[in-house]
Design brief:
The protein is mainly beta and about 170 residues long. It has two helices and ten strands. The chain has a single domain, classed as Porin (Beta Barrel). It has an eight-stranded antiparallel β-barrel. The longest helix is centred in the first third of the chain and has 9 residues.
């Protein structure tokens, strides 16, 4: 029974690849848990303000999401269109709206569609909101302050285009 469980896990899809939007670049890994669920871990570079020339260094965050496959359409040629959504957590070191860097902790989510080709490549389009808090120090001799991570909400509806390799 243990051997059959190991074989079933190894037959599941795993993906590695990148996700792009005008304010974020991410590298990620995901693994299918069952036919209806998977988990994903993404390392993000927060490019907010860099594209506009306001800042010169990106922020960084890591997201862990548990994604439910909410619909799947298999085509006769072996290609698959599926929808997914799920909750997660996010942590990192990001820039707030005042330009100061701070620690981020929050809840995140994902909603999207994915098209898997016959070759081991998948394209996805998703939105990834983050509801989080940042803790930063506005000046060297001031107290730390906690505030809402506004960029996680402001840019939550910016679509992310992903390309991943399945293995």
């Amino acid at each position: 029974m243990l051997l059959s469980g190991c074989c079933a896990v190894s037959a599941q899809d795993r993906m590695i690849g990148g996700t792009f939007s005008f304010n974020e670049f991410a590298l990620g890994f995901s693994s299918q848990i069952s036919e209806k669920a998977r988990y994903a871990v993404d390392a993000n570079l927060d490019m907010t303000g860099i594209v506009l020339g306001e800042y010169d260094a990106p922020g960084f965050s890591v997201d862990f999401t548990y994604q439910f496959i909410i619909g799947r359409k298999k085509f006769p040629d072996g290609e698959v269109l599926s929808g997914f959504a799920g909750p997660g957590i996010s942590a990192g070191y990001v820039r707030g709206t005042d330009g100061k860097y701070g620690l981020l902790a929050g809840l995140c989510g994902i909603v999207g569609m994915e098209y898997s080709f016959r070759v081991p490549v998948s394209l996805s389009l998703s939105v990834n909101p983050v509801l989080g808090l940042t803790v930063n120090r506005p000046a060297p001799n001031s107290l730390y302050r906690m505030e809402l991570y506004r960029y996680g909400l402001l840019y939550s509806l910016v679509p992310h285009l992903g390309i991943k390799y399945r293995f």
